[in-house]
């Protein structure tokens, strides 16, 4: 730390050259409290607003909170980093400049403008940020593409995290000034974009598979109907083995089966054969 300070900056490695570096004007507490406070506000606001949307489960409302938070983080926090290459030199820095000067204590590749890091953050800010906000709308409006969109964005976030950690390892794994910044910033702050997207991706995958299974079952029933009256007994046996669990309760009547579209299963239920 002392060696780094002799170079005019508080980052590691000590030999990192940052000409024109301007020290932080905000304290760590001021930066963290402001960021965490804004994050809590976003969660509470979206939670309250989502409560006015009919037929949304608590899980969907929590997902709306997450996607709003992560979307705004990608756009408003990571976006300025990508498009402000001289943020560490500014004599009158804004809050976002200070955020990245503070975070760089846990990963100095940001203040050093590492090309791989800038590229990953650029893709995240430009593509995943707007897509995350679109996911909020898709969930609230119960759009058919909701789970496909969420699954795609989750894959993008997981891929970005893999590139982020793997490149850090390959480049020497020495970009933090101490254990606190390693665990709190480098590991802790990024871990949310690993385990949360994994859980959402698994859920969306299951919902999408259920929809395709429902479509397949519907086509099978339509094929049975074409057999005609001579195969009525076989049709009855198949119909007894088909159970639909959803908002209409357990149904086995053919008329009710035809009324339920595959998209309904994404939101309300699943098909069980046997």
Automatic annotation (TrEMBL):
One of its GO terms (molecular function) is steroid Delta-isomerase activity. One of its GO terms (biological process) is sterol biosynthetic process. Its main location: membrane. Residues 59-201 form the EXPERA domain. The keyword Lipid metabolism applies. Keywords: Isomerase, Lipid biosynthesis, Lipid metabolism, Membrane, Steroid biosynthesis, Steroid metabolism, Sterol biosynthesis, Sterol metabolism, Transmembrane, Transmembrane helix. It is a multi-pass membrane protein. It is found in: Membrane. The chain crosses the membrane at residues 31-50, 62-83, 122-140, 147-170, 182-202. InterPro entries: EBP, EXPERA. One of its GO terms (cellular component) is endoplasmic reticulum. Belongs to the EBP family. This is EXPERA domain-containing protein. It comes from Zea mays.
